[in-house]
Recover the amino acids of this structure.
């Protein structure tokens, strides 16, 4: 036998035993997005490398070391998208969706980053994202955050996530702060690790969210970005907090929250959990008022977030929130004896016509009662509908309940559709 080919490290199959949780989560994401008036947009998975360099930033982790970049056959540099916002803005600009307009959009799909695979961190992973364009007032910031909060509520995990909130100010405010921060970091250089020393000059704000406790200790007396805020930034942030307070959404201000992508300004936030171990951020986002212009469009403000679907699915499973998801099949049809299979196929079709959302699996491949019952049980169905010679002669079906304590019963064929309707 030749050696079997394996999947690429960090790129996972989603097996049938897992897809039902995925589908349930995806269904909630879609529904809640439309509850807030957001419409779906679908972008290609491959884009020009320049798009991500220009938007995410040359000296970010993503662009420096995580992108899957390759030359197309004609020599163009292409990249498997590491995130969705840049593509969404590119698409919006290209199709004139953003010019003097408001848009509320969502997307969902695979993203690619060459990271070290571990629990909650993969090389192909999936994000659901929200982007709202054309509105600069903080009511839309609140609306976007409230949408995310509703997702946790619908999924039953609100009590396991915490909202961290910060403002990054305007680019001018950040530039002034950056100078003060670099001066401070230079004075404390001996207490920084190699990573932070390197970032000190390339991307100093990233030093603030270093995971190293020694670096964090060295930052205790560092200057604060909020001391550099002008009136507008302060008013925007205060108003956002008022909206959230009013909506009863709890948050923790984290002045060290800076995010790993360069395009953010003003509002940034993350939803974090301690039920996932090291990979604690489930959802992250913020405002990016300069990005549309930076990518060649007429300036238009924007705010959004992206959440990691794998991390959500992991949470749902580990917190046992995914136990009551309906199995793939509601009813399993068993046919025994001469000609029963032919009738079973027809009847199953009639029942599917009568109850459009019913999931009926018809036994195929023959076999005795024992074999067919075993399959019925494995299918996860609630009932087995048994069609044997006696049943068919009497225009009946035997209903055997596979879950719970119900007695087996004989039912006239004409009543089967109403029984099936009750199962869903
Ligand atoms: P992290 O700090 O965990 O690396 P990030 O800041 O790089 O996250 P974002 O770019 O903000 O992440 O992406 C938003 C969300 O996408 C994250 O909060 C996370 O849930 C998910 N995510 C990011 N990278 C990965 C990955 N490699 N595997 C699985 N999920 C991921
Ligand atoms: Mg990352």
């Amino acid at each position: 036998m030749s050696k079997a080919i394996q999947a690429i490290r960090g790129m996972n199959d989603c097996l049938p035993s897992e897809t039902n949780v995925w589908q349930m989560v995806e269904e909630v994401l879609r529904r809640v997005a439309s509850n807030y008036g957001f419409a779906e947009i679908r972008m290609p998975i491959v884009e020009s490398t320049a798009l991500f360099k220009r938007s995410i930033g040359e000296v970010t982790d993503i662009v420096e070391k995580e992108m899957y970049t390759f030359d197309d056959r004609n020599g163009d540099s292409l990249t498997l998208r590491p995130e969705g916002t840049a593509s969404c803005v590119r698409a919006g600009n290209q199709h004139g969706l953003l010019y003097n307009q408001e848009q509320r959009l969502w997307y969902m799909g695979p993203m690619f980053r060459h990271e070290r695979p571990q629990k909650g961190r993969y090389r192909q992973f999936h994000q659901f994202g929200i982007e709202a364009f054309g509105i600069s007032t903080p009511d839309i910031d609140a609306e976007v955050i409230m949408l995310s909060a509703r997702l946790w509520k619908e999924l039953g995990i609100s009590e396991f996530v915490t909202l961290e909130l910060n403002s990054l100010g305007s680019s001018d405010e950040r530039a002034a702060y950056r100078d003060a921060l670099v001066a401070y970091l230079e004075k404390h250089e001996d207490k920084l690790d190699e990573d932070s020393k390197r970032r000190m000059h390339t991307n100093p704000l990233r030093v603030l969210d270093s995971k190293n406790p020694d670096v964090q200790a060295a930052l205790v007396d560092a200057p604060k970005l909020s001391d550099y805020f002008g009136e507008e930034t302060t008013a925007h942030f205060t108003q956002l907090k008022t909206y959230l307070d009013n909506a009863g959404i709890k948050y923790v201000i984290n002045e060290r929250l800076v995010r790993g992508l360069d395009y953010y300004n003003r509002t940034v936030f993350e939803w974090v959990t301690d039920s996932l171990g090291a990979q604690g951020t489930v959802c992250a986002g913020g405002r990016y008022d300069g990005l549309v212009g930076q990518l060649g469009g007429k300036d238009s403000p924007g705010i959004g977030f992206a959440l990691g679907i794998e991390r959500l699915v992991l949470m749902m499973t580990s917190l046992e929130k995914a136990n009551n998801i309906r199995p793939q099949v509601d009813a399993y049809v068993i046919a025994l004896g001469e000609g029963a299979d032919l009738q079973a196929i027809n009847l199953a079709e009639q029942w599917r016509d009568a109850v459009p959302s019913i999931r009926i699996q018809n036994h195929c491949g023959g076999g005795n009662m024992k074999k067919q019952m075993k399959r019925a049980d494995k299918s996860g169905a609630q009932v087995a509908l048994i069609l044997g010679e006696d049943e068919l002669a009497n225009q009946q079906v035997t209903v055997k309940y596979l879950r719970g304590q119900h007695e087996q019963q004989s039912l006239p064929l004409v009543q089967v559709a109403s029984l099936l309707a009750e199962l869903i």
User: Anything to note?
Assistant: The chain has 15 helices and 16 strands. The mean pLDDT is 95.
